């Protein structure tokens, strides 16, 4: 019977990944100028966060309102490396202490703080982009889930952490660049990241990373761990009394979502050229949840489209009606929760997919029918 | 003393739990033998479900010991108790509604129970065969690809029993397995229980006296967190203390 064998990448999902790859790597670059494409690249860096939220919130039922924390940590790690490279003694000769980032000089620091030192190394930075946020997520999730804190309480605590980290970054201006963030980033190992050509390359790099993360997410959700997450969301006690240490699975998925977010943050820094506390706090964290909800919190593909659509709307509307945008975003969220709880992906599976499959069937009517995969219509 | 204890699968001694001063279970002791079917009955609020909660680790005991094959359960975590060989069915059917019947059973299959194991878990022939075998036993062989939410109430109860069976526990605890079932389903369930209790010990909580009479060899009557009477169904039914508790007030 069909449940005997099931690959981690059914044909329909492979098609969806291919379609997405063609859209972001062929259609967008051919149809947009570099300014717009760079904006899409920025949106795609948020899509990493939405992708993590699908696994963590959609599958595992763990609502985190603090994903900006991990996005920010990843982004700051990247920015610290780029800032150090931009702060050579020659380039900062006019400072009272040359060779340290400009904002440190303005804040009367006379030496590079110890935790900035390792960020001279690119390989350390690449490792830190993942490891620092994951360790932080691990500490939070062990402290919460081992004590069985969950649901609304967990959401509130993650939100509080986002607020605390923002305040900390803004307060420690000399070490972090304060409210302005880390700006004026120029080169990566001597390669100027501000040119149009560099922006194209970074955009494609971001797309490849996103598709890589998509494959990881696909593997996880198709593994038994993915089904366990769904089971835990529904009947946590039943999973526990089937011999699983439920908290370990929650810790894993929360750390994985943090790792995705952190990669997104690093991509953001590279493409946008700065990192600031505006992307760490409560508002961006909630916005990221909305991207995921609009796209469909049970669909890894929907989350990416949702991010693109909401951000496109945000850019379009806030160019014409800047005051109205936040109301629009709120209305969108309420609308999604009330009317389409499965988001765009839900609309796709109820309206478009049945018609598509009917159309395919009529095309193939001469050939023998394909084995059905109804058990997995959710994606 | 120790040698005697080894003979029991489960030895509960002096078990007490108090919720804000209210003693839901009060100095309770009872013993379950190898391959025994023990039925626990008692009026509402007697502490029956609490006893199961205590054994499976859902509630922590205030005092007393629970020894399962010589292992002290009161100090263990829930999943460790399951690994030791204790399975528990909840009062309301507790199944994963979003998953298929097959997936529900597969999750309970005792392999790949840590994070890494779950990521690497392969649905091989051993798993499929075992799931099919259990599905056959619980009358759900034709519904393996059905979403569990679409099952009837009775089928959900069976599914949860199946999820326990696939773990092959040495002690099986069932909390009101026939509650809300039709007469035909009750009969089928009694038949099922008689089949699956071979080679393991079972504790059942039940209100339905006909059903109790069908399956029980020994009955423990709880009242206000204490053992009121214990013995064969006949003896318990004729015990004046039991009559008073059930009918007297």
Radius of gyration of chain B: 19 Å
Could you tell me the number of beta strands of chain A? 2
Silhouette of chain B: globular
Give start-end ranges of low-pLDDT stretches of chain A: 372-379
CATH architecture of chain B: 3-Layer(aba) Sandwich
Our count of domains of chain A comes out at 1
Query: What is the helix/strand order of chain A?
Result: HHHHHHHEEHHHHHHHH
C-alpha Rg of chain A (nearest Å)? 22 Å
Describe this structure as you would to a colleague.
The complex is a heterodimer of chains A (379) and B (249). Chain A has one domain (11-368). Chain A contains 15 helices and two strands. Chain A has helices at residues 11-31, 34-59, 67-86, 102-106, 122-145, 151-171, 173-176, 196-222, 224-234, 236-240, 246-272, 282-295, 300-320, 325-339, 343-364, and strands spanning 187-188, 191-192. Chain A has a two-stranded antiparallel ribbon. In chain A, α2 packs across α13 (300-320). The longest helix of chain A is centred in the middle third of the chain and has 27 residues, at 196-222. By secondary structure, chain B is α/β, with parallel strands linked by helices. Chain B has one domain: P-loop containing nucleotide triphosphate hydrolases (Rossmann fold). Chain B has eleven helices and ten strands. Chain B has helices spanning 2-7, 48-56, 78-84, 101-108, 115-120, 125-137, 153-165, 183-196, 209-215, 233-238, 240-248; strands spanning 8-19, 22-33, 37-41, 63-68, 71-72, 86-89, 171-175, 201-205, 218-223, 226-231. In chain B, the strands form two sheets. Chain B has a six-stranded mixed sheet with strand order 6-7-8-3-9-10, sandwiched between helices. The model of chain B is unreliable at 1-5 (pLDDT under 50). Chain A binds chain B through residues 1-6, 219-220, 223-225, 227-228, 230-231, 233-235, 237-246, 248-249, 252, 374-375, and chain B through 56, 58, 77-79, 82-83, 87-88, 90, 94-100, 102-104, 106-108, 110, 112-115, 118-121, 123, 128, 144-145, 147, 160, 163, 167.
């Amino acid at each position: 019977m069909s449940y005997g064998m099931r690959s981690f990448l059914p044909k329909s999902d492979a098609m969806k990944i291919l379609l997405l790859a063609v859209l972001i790597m062929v259609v967008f670059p051919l149809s947009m100028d570099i300014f717009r494409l760079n904006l899409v690249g920025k949106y795609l860096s948020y899509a990493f966060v939405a992708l993590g939220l699908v696994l963590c919130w959609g599958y595992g039922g763990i609502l985190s309102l603090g994903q900006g924390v991990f996005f920010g940590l990843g982004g700051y790690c990247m920015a610290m490396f780029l800032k150090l490279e931009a702060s050579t003694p020659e380039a900062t000769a006019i400072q009272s202490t040359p060779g340290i980032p400009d904002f440190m000089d303005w804040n009367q620091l006379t030496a590079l703080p110890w935790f900035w030192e390792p960020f001279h190394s690119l390989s350390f930075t690449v490792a830190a982009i993942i490891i620092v946020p994951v360790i932080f997520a691990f500490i939070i999730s062990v402290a919460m889930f081992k004590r069985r804190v969950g649901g609304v309480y967990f959401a509130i605590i993650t939100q509080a952490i986002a607020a605390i980290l923002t305040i900390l970054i803004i307060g420690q201006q000399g070490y972090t660049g304060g409210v302005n963030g880390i700006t004026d980033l120029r080169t990566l190992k001597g390669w100027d990241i501000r040119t149009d050509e560099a922006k194209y390359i970074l955009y494609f790099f971001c797309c490849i990373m996103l598709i890589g993360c998509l494959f990881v997410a696909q593997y996880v959700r198709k593994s038994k761990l993915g089904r366990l997450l769904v089971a835990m969301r529904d009947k946590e006690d039943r999973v526990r009394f089937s011999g699983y240490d439920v908290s370990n699975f929650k810790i894993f998925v929360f750390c994985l979502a943090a790792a995705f977010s952190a990669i997104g943050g690093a991509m953001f820094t590279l493409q946008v050229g700065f990192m600031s506390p505006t992307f760490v706090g409560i508002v961006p964290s909630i916005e990221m949840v909305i991207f995921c909800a609009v796209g469909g919190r049970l669909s890894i593909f929907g989350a990416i489209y949702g991010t693109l659509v909401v951000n496109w709307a945000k850019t379009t509307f806030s160019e014409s009606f800047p005051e109205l945008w936040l109301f629009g975003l709120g209305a969108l969220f309420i609308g999604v929760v009330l009317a389409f709880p499965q988001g765009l992906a839900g609309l796709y599976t109820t309206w478009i997919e049945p018609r598509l499959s009917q159309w395919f069937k009529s095309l193939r009517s001469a050939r023998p029918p394909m084995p059905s995969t109804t058990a997995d219509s959710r994606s | 003393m120790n040698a005697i204890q080894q003979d029991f699968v489960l030895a509960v001694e002096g078990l007490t739990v108090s919720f804000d001063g209210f003693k839901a279970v009060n100095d309770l002791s009872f013993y379950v033998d190898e391959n025994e079917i023990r039925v626990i009955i008692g009026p509402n609020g007697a502490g029956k479900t609490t006893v199961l909660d205590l054994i499976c680790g859902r509630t922590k005991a205030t005092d007393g010991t629970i020894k399962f094959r010589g292992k002290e359960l009161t100090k263990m975590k829930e999943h460790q108790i399951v690994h030791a060989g204790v399975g528990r069915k909840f009062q309301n059917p507790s199944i994963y509604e979003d998953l298929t019947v097959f997936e529900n059973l597969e999750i309970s299959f005792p392999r790949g129970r840590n994070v890494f194991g779950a990521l690497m878990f392969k649905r091989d022939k051993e798993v499929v065969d075992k799931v099919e075998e259990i599905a056959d036993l619980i009358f759900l062989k034709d519904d393996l690809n059905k979403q569990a939410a679409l099952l009837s109430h009775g089928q959900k109860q069976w599914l949860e029993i199946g999820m326990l069976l696939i773990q092959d526990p040495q002690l099986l605890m069932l909390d009101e397995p026939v509650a809300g079932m039709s007469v035909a389903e009750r009969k089928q369930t009694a038949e099922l229980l008689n089949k699956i209790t071979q080679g393991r010990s079972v504790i059942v909580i039940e209100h339905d006296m006909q059903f109790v009479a069908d399956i029980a060899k020994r009955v423990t009557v709880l009242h206000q967190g204490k053992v009121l009477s214990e013995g064969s169904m006949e003896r318990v039914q004729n015990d004046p203390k039991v009559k008073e508790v059930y009918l007297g007030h």
